[in-house]
Amino acid sequence: xxxxxxxxxxxxxxxxxxxxxAISPPKNSKRSSPDSDSATPPPKAQIVGWPPVRxxxxxxxxxxxxxxxxxxxxDGAPYLRKIDLKVYNGYVELLEGLEKMFKLTIGEYSEREGxxxxxxxxxxxxxxxxxxxxxxxxxxxxxxxxxxxxxxxASDARGLGCAV
Amino acid sequence: xxxxxxxxxxxxxxxxxxxxxFDFLTSHRDRNxxxxxxxxxxxxxxxxxxxxxxxxxxxxNPERLIARFPRLRSLTLKGKPHFADFNLVPDxxxxxxxxxxxxxxxxxxxxxxxRLKRMVVSDESLExxxxxxxxxKSLVLVSCEGFTTDGLAAxxxxxxxxxxxxxxxxxxxxxxxxxxxxVRGYCFxxxxxxxxxxxxxxxxxxxxxxxxxxxxxxxxxxxxSCTSLVSLNFACLKGEVxxxxxxxxxxxxxxxxxxxxxxxxPLEVLQKILVRAPQLSDLGTGSFTHDPDSETYIKLTNAMKxxxxxxxxxxxxxxxxxxxPAIYPICTNLTSLNLSYAPGIFSNELIKLICHCKxxxxxxxxxxxxxxxxxxxxxxxxxxxxxxxFPSDLYGVGNTAVTEEGLVAISAGCPKLNSILYFCQQMTxxxxxxxxxxxxxxxxxxxxxxxxxxxxxxxNQPLDEGFGAIVQSCKRLTRLSVSGLLTDQVFLYIGMYxxxxxxxxxxxxxxxxxxxxxxxxxxxxxKKLEIRDSPFxxxxxxxxMGKYETMRSLWMSSCEVTLGGxxxxxxxxxxxxxxxxxxxxxxxxxxxxDNRHRVEKMYLYRTLVGPRKDAPDFVWxx
Lengths: 164, 622
Known about the structure:
The complex is a heterodimer of chains A (164) and B (622). Chain A is an alpha+beta fold and 164 residues long. Helices cover 21% and strands 19% of the residues of chain A. The longest helix of chain A is centred in the middle third of the chain and has 12 residues. With 622 residues, chain B is α/β, with parallel strands linked by helices. In chain B, α7 packs parallel to α8, α16 packs parallel to α17 and α20 packs parallel to α21. Chain A: Homodimers and heterodimers. Chain A: InterPro entries: AUX/IAA_dom, AUX_IAA, PB1-like.
């Protein structure tokens, strides 16, 4: 047994004291020696109970923060993106943001004809699970009811009023 | 006059006089001190004490409490150790309030107020509470768990009163028909005069509890005759409440001073409530998001302008930053502002808001405010006494956090600062030394670096000197939490200078037993010591065992103490409960445990009543 020689006590480690059994940061993050970049916190492998924030507070903050993030899918794209609706002040900014993110143009919105002059139409899934055209309702109402965004190909979007 | 003569004079005071004098002593510490003077003072004191504070529910038991303080009206109880807040204590550990309520109910205690922190409160407890104490007025639950909205419904209904009212109603209709004298005699002998005064709940304050929301109608359970509410806080509830019932409740309670809503209460309802209750002094908004161009928002702005008494503001659990201007008029008189649950308010909006808050004394915010924002606080909030800066980014690499700059700015700009909780990305000794010079009045100083062992950002040295400066300068410091890279040296300073220290929290710090020894030997007023992930072992633990009887409790987790060390301590100190917490998969039982085995979690506390009988399987009292 090692206990007599107490090899562990003399072991040259750069780790945190006493974290043998607890969830400890992975070996590659024990960079707390003076001659290395020690400002970065132990990543990914969270230390239990650190930072010392009440679980109530942690849960609430997580909920609040993710509240405005919605997934954005684009027909034909291999993976989805996520955007924070709170960052935008209105539809114009949102559509610009989407255009930049997916490198496409969305065209102009009109109540009668939906999105004119582009291959794509932005749609969203609301609280009830229905697929709706972006732009019909006031911005604030949209923000609170939008659960997920979908950039559809205009050819699929005929039913949503997109004039191709 | 010599001592003997003085004593004789004191003995001539009749007990009523002593009791009257003691009435002026409100602090439990003063009353404790007074009861130590002599037997007669102890006796007078114990039979007149109405408010009792028990910092560790396992230090005594209900029977002893009731025997000593039969005139008890207000009880404060704390259960789990502080580190339970950070998931270090498994579920089922204990801290049940039921036995206390049961015992007080059986003994006919006239309980009016119950304040609990970190306790397990079941619905059965709440139901028993509701029906056992006719004069019950105030329930405050902080960081508790175990109850649902059904339990709240029981409290709201406060059944005993409703039953009495039914009796009156039934007999009042017979009043004119049956012989009046007979009926009247019956009514008033049945009914206590106090039914006509407010026998209803005054205060229901739920702070940061984990409540199982049964989506019931607990708010509707406040009877129509309940008009006595002064304080209602249900911000921590997750489910929807009956807003119509809420509005009616607010409308019929003219003494309502404090109201904190949960996130399901929309802005429209808030507006209506404020119109009904402009006398509020403490407001917690629910959701604060709406179209700022709408009529509702304009109505809200007007309603707010009419609320001249609001001094404390919190909530904004779901917020649209552009709605904040509505609260600017109340900001001028605010003394307390809690925006720590509002990550939706961005830094620039926060700063704009702060500029209106010149009288703020207590400010709780997120680190999204940034160093720049803290600079604004420093320039604006000259009355600031307590600041708490919480981390907003708990899982990432912390881009938005504050640094030592913000803390230095605050210390320079806010001369009345005496209490701080600061989560930061980095710190330096130089900054801490400056802070210590600027603010010698700290009572509470809690610093938490997001990386628990980060060294001085400028010099890469440990933060020993910085914290050393704090304890040396702040002679009235009673609570301290340290973090960052720390060696035994910091504990040398703490032991040497922190003479008034009562609570110390240590994590990932120190090199050897010497560190803990310095603290135990030096801090004469230490009451609570909690240590995690630090290399302190049996030598330190056993060096001054008598010390623990002068303290409330000691917590050590992921340190170097062994089972053998803990057993020795338990053996020598029968008036301590030494508890080991063993989580799943750590051996089959005590028998297979080697005394040399390191103990993962140990919690010890002084007690008058021996090992507790409600310890679960995974807690061993040695």
